[in-house]
Amino acid sequence: MDIMLFHSVYGLRPAVRDAADRLRAAGHQVWVPDLFDGWTTDSVEEGMAKRDEIGKDELLKRAILAAAPYSERGLVYAGFSFGASVAQTLALGDEKARGLLLLHGTSDLAPNVSVDELPVQLHVADPDPFETHDWLSSWYLQMRRAGADVEIYRYPGAGHVYTDPELPDWDEESADRTWSVGLAFVDSL
């Protein structure tokens, strides 16, 4: 499977590269664009400021340009937190998308989005300050109305980006479970 993996507002950190290597070791081809041009941080506040400085439109343009050479292949889009929102936007706009793996994040849906049973899997902390229960309920219903086949996995007690061992949110048990379920999902596509 060909996978386009997007980083969070923390930037292209070692945990994202490790995730790509994990997917490659399972036999997948993975591209990991650096939307922040080498900039990384350990602070969510700095990361959000960087995202806002570059601008959402510019970041989406960078993501589209990164995915465009490979989209004819039928990509699986994946991402962490902010990167998950980017992945979701691209997957819902790509009629050849094969799947969507969301780690720690979602995004608003554009009006009148329609997909043909796109497989979607979301892994999220519970509770998560960025992905509240009310939001996730609404998001799930919108995704189902759009035609996506959605699975949500919640991890009680985990922090927002619990798959990065260098961040305070790290939760080894939840991260291991996420990767076990997530890899099986990608393998099934």
Task: Outline the structure in words.
This protein has 189 residues and is of the alpha/beta class. The protein has a single domain, classed as 3-Layer(aba) Sandwich (Rossmann fold), CATH 3.40.50.1820. It contains six helices and six strands; from the N terminus they run E-H-E-H-H-E-H-E-E-H-E-H. A six-stranded parallel sheet has the order 2-1-3-4-5-6, sandwiched between helices. The longest helix has 17 residues. It is globular, with a radius of gyration of 15 Å. 41% of the residues are buried. The mean pLDDT is 96.
Number of strands: 6
- In N-to-C order, the SSE pattern is EHEHHEHEEHEH
Domain module tally: 1
Give the termini distance in whole angstroms. 8 Å
Structural class: alpha/beta
List its salient traits.
189 residues; alpha/beta; Rossmann fold; six-stranded parallel beta sheet; 6 helices
In short:
The protein is of the alpha/beta class and 189 residues long.
Please specify the SSE layout and strand pairing.
Blueprint: E1 2-6, H1 14-25, E2 29-31, H2 44-54, H3 56-67, E3 76-80, H4 82-93, E4 99-103, E5 119-126, H5 133-146, E6 149-156, H6 172-188
Parallel strand pairs: 1-2, 1-3, 3-4, 4-5, 5-6
